[in-house]
Amino acid sequence: MSVLPNLALSVSIVMPVYNEVPGPHADSLTPRIQSLLGLLRPCDEVILVDGNSTDFSWHAIKDLTVHPQLQAIQSAKGRALQMNAGAAKAKGDILLFLHADTVLSSTAWHEFLDKINTQISTRSAVCVWGRFDVRVVGKSKWLPLVGWFINQRSRLSKIGTGDQALFVGRELFHQVGGFPIQPLMEDIALCKLLKQTAAEEFLAIRASVITSGRRWDSHGAWKTILLMWRLRFDYWRGVSPHELARQYADTRRKLPFIVAVFAKYPQPGQVKTRMEPLLGTDGCAAFARYLLLSTLEKLQGLHVVLWTDGGSEAQWLDLLNGRTVQRYIQPQGHLGIRMQAAVEMHLQSAEIVVLLGPDAVQFTRADLSNLVLAAKVHSIAFVPALDGGYVALACTRCEPAVFAEHIQWGTGSVAEQTRAVLAKQGVQAQWLDAQLDIDEPADLETAIQQGCVPVDWAERYTDEQSNSRNRNTGGQYE
Questions:
Q1: For the segment 232-247, what is each residue's pLDDT rounded down to a tens digit?
Q2: Which of 30, 16, 98 lies closest to 64, judged by CA?
Q3: What would the DSSP string read from start to end of 204-271?
Q4: In 51-128, which ranges are E strands?
Q5: N or C: which end of the chain has fewer CB within 10 A?
Q6: Domains of the chain and any CATH numbers
């Protein structure tokens, strides 16, 4: 290994992150970042760019900012957006873009440093760019061949992929305008710009970075290879990145629907506060707890995810008492932002996303079936609330206008404003029959009279015995 000059070029490693840490006890990202930090020289830095993750990723990477050479920032979701945001904060002479599931080995790092400092003689004219060889690891026996083809193709074409850890001089990166803002093929688009501007400065680092083969393992090695070649060919012949992103999403195996339940942790004084004159502060928390657990029982056996607001990991584990339900943390912002985040995320893995609040006490599994069917026909469907909001929403695509900030969230005009927004957009939604949700003392009295809430609700879910009884019987909704 050659000795680096005293005026070695500095490197900023930029990593886009989105939903890489499912929970505090399922964090493989932190040790990878810590290993990466161990490679740095004093002049280098790591910039982690979170795309408004809905799991524990932001918490995990914020904890890493105690290291003086690490920055953690947030941006809108999207690799191109996130990597450009990180590049804007970078101070290094060279930008190295590393995907969260790609590992930069010590061997690859030191070969990279040797190559760039050998090729560049001045710090003011950094035009170098390139990529590493890649080794794909996973279950399929074909993955070594996948990596070999990727490396050979890019060595001949001077077109790299994000899995190969692209790098480029900071001045050159800004000169070509950074990553084009597009949902797919942003890596290829950047390489084309760099090739047009500085083809002779291309470097192919033969030492390999290591990337996860989960995409090939999940969907089949040869099926994935053929798909990626077809997408690249279509991109070459002019098909738009947005259309390619849609095709790519359509090839994935998707669930028929996902139900996303939004819930606050039942902390006294923080939930159902309008009902305090009837129930008191502790009673409101107990009722919110009942509503959430009864909703989960009602949806037992379906693909349900829980979007939480407040409460610690230990508190939620205790509340759920062994129920296996995937949980995400609601992002910051108004309710529309939170709902849109859930819709965008779950449409990646499901044909239909249903958003539901736990206080929709009249909502049954038959209503769920009707709502899903309506969404299949009309793309978006609602169950309005009697108080002017809506208790459930189902959609097959994301309509950002439905989640806009100007809608007066939490008021009795939400449904009316949503109808107006959809009409302005020319979208025909299906509105099913209005139902009761519980926000005021009178709502609870009505729900008990109609049999939607049992008289002894306060005695439900108070111990493991009652939890077992409800799980075994399926609750009152069967």
A1: 666 666 666 666 566 5
A2: 30
A3: EEEEEEEEE-HHHHHH-HHHHHHHHHHHHHHHHTT--HHHHHHHHHHHS--EEEEEEEEEE---TTTS
A4: 70-74, 94-97, 102-103
A5: N
A6: 11-216 (3.90.550.10), 255-470 (3.90.550.10)
